[in-house]
Give the backbone structure.
Amino acid sequence: MSSIFVMAAGKGTRLAPWTLAVPKPVLPVANEPALGFLLRLAARHGYRDIVANASWLGDVLTGVIGDGSAYGVQLDWQHEDAPLGTAGGVLHAQEALRDGDEPVVVLSGDGIHDVDLAAVERTHRESGAIATLAVVQVADPSQYGVALVDDAGRITGFQEKPAPGTAHSNLANTGIYVLDPRALDRCAEWGLTDFGSELFPRLLAEGMHLQTHDIGDAYWNDIGDLDEWRASNVAAVSGAIDLGVHHDDSDLTSIDGEGVLVHPTATIAGDASLGFGTIVGAGAHVGSGVHLASALILPGARVPDGVVIASGTFGSLAGLEAWATELAAH
């Protein structure tokens, strides 16, 4: 199968201050590094050769994730002194990625989803397109870049975060792409660094075939901001997404009641109340009389007695750093 490139070099500024401690792909989702789920998904769909870029806190990222073997893949890290942009990162890694005329699958490193990646590649091959974009129908297109398509799913235009009431499509770009090598050649020739704002509109303007693949009812989200990060955690413990992990007491994580996830090394006071959508991280302590609902309790956090956390995230930068250090040591 094709190689996969994972874009993982960004700073994650909308997730600050947490991304001052760890890079965005390391932030915990269901008590595991977010990127781990993406790598496991790739393995489930038959992909084994993965290339990823690293820049911001790159040593932390590569130390935690390692060579990918824990997730069933072989991972080749490409280091960037400074982020080169979405397209720039792929071009920088071309030597490791390209295999003759085989297409390249590109994924956003902050994606949390259970999209059938092999199906996206099949659509690309069958259509003969120079690039295929996986898209999802959204209720509010104003938050996304959207693709305008014909009846066959061929892209006819783009709108970037259209104002409410002005959208001509509700098909949002998921950051999942399949690219023909010709697309990379054009990208290098034109000196472009970004897919969404530069390469795809330029290819379309040149009259080239860009295709969409609608992911249907597959779960898709990212951890692009604080609310979406917590929402992805809730989805992971509520059964909204298939993360390909069986939780039991022998794993890093364990299920404790419906929609609640408690790490085996966490301690919970006997009279604490843990409501739906709550995740308690490694080494955390939840005090007496605490009430939690849709709460993300980060590794090493100490929730004082009597505290109520509803739809919030609680922890410390030091706790996150210590958790990442511990993962890297193993």
In short: The chain is about 25% helix and 30% strand. The first helix runs from residue 34 to 44. Residues 246-329 form one domain.
